[in-house]
Amino acid sequence: MITKARLIYTFLFLITIGIGLISREIATIPLWIGDALWAVMIFWLMALLFPSFQVIRLMLVSLAICYLIEISQLYQAEWINELRRTLPGRLILGQGFLWSDLWAYTIGVFTAGGIQKKILSKMTY
Questions:
Q1: What pTM did the predictor assign?
Q2: CA distances from 56 to 8, 16, 18 (A)
Q3: How confident is residue 120, by pLDDT bands cut at 50, 70 and 90?
Q4: What are the residue ranges of helices labelled H in the chain?
Q5: In degrees, to the nearest 5, what angle opens at C-alpha 114 toward C-alphas 108 and 115?
C-alpha cells in the first residue's frame, strides 16, 4: 500500500537527516560518510515522492540529482555563493566540487537501493 510506504520513507528520510547531521559533529567520522548519507536521504525522498517507481529508477533519479547538485558547485556566481553561505544552502547545495563526493553519493544510493530491494520492498507492498 502506497500510504504505508510513504510513512516508512518519511521516517527513513527524517532519521537519515538526523544521522547525517550528527555525523558532521563527530570528528572521527570521515566526511564522505555524511555525503553518502546525503545521497541516502535523496533516495528516501524520491521513494517518498514516487513510491511506485522501481528501485533502479529511484537510484538513477537520485544519482542524477546528487551529481547535478555537485556539478552545480562549479558555478560560482555571487548570488548562489551567498545562498551557499546560509545553513540550508550549505546543507542542500554544498560548498565546493569534489570528485570524491560523486563516489560517496554512488555508495549512498547503492546502499539505499539495496536496502529498498532486499528489505523494504517486502514491507511496503
A1: 0.90
A2: 19, 20, 26
A3: confident
A4: 2-25, 31-49, 55-72, 78-84, 87-93, 99-115, 121-124
A5: 90
